[in-house]
Write a structure and sequence with these properties.
By secondary structure, the protein is mainly alpha-helical. The chain contains 4 helices and 3 strands; from the N terminus they run αβββααα. It has a 3-stranded antiparallel β-sheet. α3 packs across α4. The chain is globular. About 10% of the residues are buried.
Length: about 90
């Protein structure tokens, strides 16, 4: 069991995030709403995938302030936790 503790933690985190998305869409419990590219936590804190935002910028799209702020929030998490541990827990 100790051998699989990180795998179990990762799956638990992923399933919890997925459950929050489902609760928001099906039952209207708006803790985490949106999709895996751009989301809102508690209808106030924007979260956006920084790499998707860079792709939009290079494609010539006009990026709104909320999307840029969400990318900044996730980028700060990347720098605090490191890219690999963050993606280890949250990336599908």
């Amino acid at each position: 069991m100790k051998k699989y503790r990180f795998l179990i933690a990762r799956r638990f985190t992923q399933l919890s995030i997925l459950a929050l998305y489902i609760l928001a869409n099906v039952y209207g419990i708006n803790i985490l709403m949106g999709n895996l590219s751009s989301s809102l936590v508690l209808q106030t804190v924007p979260l956006s995938d920084p790499f998707a935002v860079l792709q939009m910028i290079f494609a010539g799209a006009i990026v709104s302030f909320d999307i840029a702020l969400g990318a900044l929030v996730i980028s700060i998490f990347y720098f605090i936790l490191g890219g690999r541990p963050f993606c280890f827990l949250f990336c599908p």
